[in-house]
Amino acid sequence: MPLDWARLQREFGDGGDIPTVAGGKRLTITAVDDEFVHIKHPLWRDRLAREHLAKAVDLVEADRMTRHSGLFAEEYRSLVADVRATSVAHVLKHLGVLE
């Protein structure tokens, strides 16, 4: 299943939040445009690139990366990008890509 960017835009185009992988906290998504998921934390703001999320989904679907959300971040850093890997795990778990 390819990355469902349209779903992200529908659900979070104007912002929202999702539970973290470990639970108990939430990741704030401030917007989703054509290229980025914009996120914030009390101490920082950043964005997750659509191309990176799509590549990660492709690798997971091809069984080249784990579906386990707790182990995903390390593989994401080495195979895709060293940018907010844990935040990517939260988003992909929300989409049902990760367990």
Describe the structure.
With 99 residues, the protein is α+β, with helices and mostly antiparallel strands. The chain has one domain (5-94). It has 4 helices and 4 strands, in the order αββββααα. The chain has helices at 5-12, 50-61, 69-79, 85-94, and strands at 16-19, 26-32, 36-41, 44-49. Strands 1-2-3-4 form a 4-stranded antiparallel sheet. Strand 3 (36-41) and strand 4 form a beta hairpin. Helix 3 (69-79) packs across helix 4 (85-94). The longest helix has 12 residues, at 50-61. It starts with a helix and ends in a 5-residue tail after the last helix. The model has no long low-confidence stretch (mean pLDDT 95).
What's this, in brief?
Helix content is about 40%, strand content about 25%.
Helix content: 40-55%
Distance between the termini: 15 Å
User: Uncertain regions: pLDDT < 50 for 5+ in a row?
Assistant: none
Shape: globular
Structural class: alpha+beta
Q: Order of strands across the widest beta sheet?
A: 1-2-3-4
Largest β sheet strand count, sense and barrel closure: 4 strands, antiparallel
Strand content: 15-25%
How do the helices and strands line up, and which of them pair or pack?
Blueprint: H1 5-12, E1 16-19, E2 26-32, E3 36-41, E4 44-49, H2 50-61, H3 69-79, H4 85-94
Antiparallel strand pairs: 1-2, 2-3, 3-4
Keywords:
single chain; 99 residues; alpha+beta; four-stranded antiparallel sheet; 4 helices; globular
